[in-house]
Amino acid sequence: LGNDLTTLGLNLNSPDNLYHKFQSPFSKQPCRPQDIDFFVPSEYLTN
Amino acid sequence: YDDPPGLNEKTEYLLREWVNIYHSPTSGRDSTRGFSTFVQQMHQQGILRTDDLITRFFRLCTELCVDLTYRLLQESNISPSLLNPTLVRAKCFHTLDAFVRLITLLVKHSGDAANSVTKINLLNKVLGIVVGVLQQDHDQRQTEFHQMPYHRIFIMLFYELNAPEHVLESINFQTLTAFTNTYHILRPTKVPGFSFAWLELISYRSFISRMLLQTPQQKGWPMYAQLLIDLFKFLGPFLRNVELTKPMQVLYRGTLRLLLVLLHDFPEFLCDYHYGFCDVIPANCIQLRNLILSAFPRNMRLPDPFTPNLKVDMLQEINSAPRILTNFVAVMPANFRKDLDSYLKTRAPVTFLSDLRGNLQLSNEPGMKYNVALINSLVLYVGTQAIQYIYSKGGTPSMSTITHSSHMDIFQNLSVDLDTEGRYLFLNAIANQLRYPNSHTHYFSCTLLYLFAEANQEAIQEQITRVLLERLIVNRPHPWGLLITFIELIKNPNFKFWNHEFVHCAPEISKLFESVARSCM
Amino acid sequence: PLGPVPLNKDNMYQQAMLEASWRHMPHPSDSERLRHYLPRNPCPTPAYYHQTPLPHHDSIDFYLRLSTETLFFIFYYMEATKAQYMAAKALKKQSWRFHTKYMMWFQRHEEPKTITDEYEQGTYIYFDYEKWGQRKKEGFTFEYRYLE
Predict the structure, then answer these.
(1) Residue of chain B minimizing CA distance to C5
(2) Which of C15, C33, C39 is closest, CB to CB, to B245?
(3) What's the average pLDDT block by block, 10 residues per block, for chain C (148 residues)?
């Protein structure tokens, strides 16, 4: 009968695109903002 | 082979130098300051003197990075307390990320700013070298192969080459092409030990975004479709046999997650390439195929299939043909195509029908008898020709306009003449067109119902029912056209569906039909 | 009616190689840049602790409800991530402004005494990331060329 695709950790009813936060095909968790690499203005690279 | 004496040591020294430069605060945020001094050193060491030396330099650097990773992984296996996985990775990435930055800077600054050819040539060269080291490593180490260093190099190089900088934007499509070619060469059937990393790489959010959204005129779509076909081809033989090992289940579930993201965010992509995907997905992979066939354009509102007295042929989209971007006739042998066209036009050569089954058969091996791709291609080709023919007569596809034509002769011949296995594949090829409201869905829905009504054996009617039922009883999603067709079959008294023996062949089957019937009425 | 098809030699090899690589699956951090200050270090917490992010945790409204200190923490400890970018947006919405020379955030403490095309001068609150606290600075000249 296949898998219950609503249990794979993806919010299929989300009004927003899912790929933004798609962490991995092997993870149930979406990315958190701190997981997403971002090209911030170079001034922010304070470290 | 025969590296110039001392090159290995030179490379090791230079790589170590670069890693220090990359991590030193004085190099600037994108290492540009450090890079210009380092290029001097490369010049002094003669590395940039010939193409061959540059190639050797990159290969040796890759091998050094890979060897370091294996050493650190080995150490962490020996004393996990000292080197926990997070620390091991940080140590590996300390060198790997520096190497990636060096590649990025050399690509960006090779040739003058406007000259994208030298940049892309260098990128392709480096990617090819990393691929070569990976394949050799995979073949030599076999089950000891570790994907991590290569996964890291590819994903970080992709990330850096997609930075919002003009020089990179101007070569972005060639960059995407280079990575797609690389991933295609490293497809799971060729490098199975790299499969999990490979699925990560093609699922990477900025790879999806670049390939399916940001590249103009959807030029990334055919490339991405090819990568998905590579994945389905790998999974196919295992999915066909249903019992999956745990690792294969993990890979399959990962595939479902990726497809769900595509179904949700880029359904038009799945709509346009469904044909090529269904050609390589085994016929018994019902849910995986339903997932792809359920895609419909986001701006389309699907009427509830259970709406009483739904007039499908009144729907606005029902007469527009869906885009099919796969060259689905390519698989047809030229003379077969010639006879087919001739038969469609003039019902000659008469032998075309009697020879048809033989043309579709590959062997007598049960379960492998038929050329699935040719059956799929034949069905779609005859169907599209039939639709054009009906329109040319001023009509639209309906139960009355699809009959008494050379097109329907072929379908009825297949329905009667094929054995169970062949007919199953034939009926599947039709059912694969039952998708969102469009002229193909409508035509093939009518065709399937017509074949049911005109069948001269109950076995054919039973098999049509089975093909529909097995697609309906799996977990969601279900294609709209599939539901519409099945509801029509059980609701329309002309098909005398409920009179058939097989409908009551077992209590749970009758209950199932009745439950579907109740939700329709 | 297709039935199973016996796996051929290639398939068996592929399956064995897949099995071997399954023992060291890719790690989420393999696809992320190095996090010098906050590396992923999963550790089991009691089940009654939040195991998944709060709803809308990645919206600007959520960030606007965070304390200023939290926003500064995110800004300085989650560098080059979307979180840093969101924290910066939230800080700006709360009229903090980033000084690109000191790499610190400033907020007017009162109407500046002097305002010219090049700079403004007066008393400001700034966040000192070394001493990790908000400080008041009087008679400070905020040159606009350092305004991000």
Answers:
(1) B241
(2) C15
(3) 89 97 95 90 90 90 96 96 97 96 95 96 96 95 94
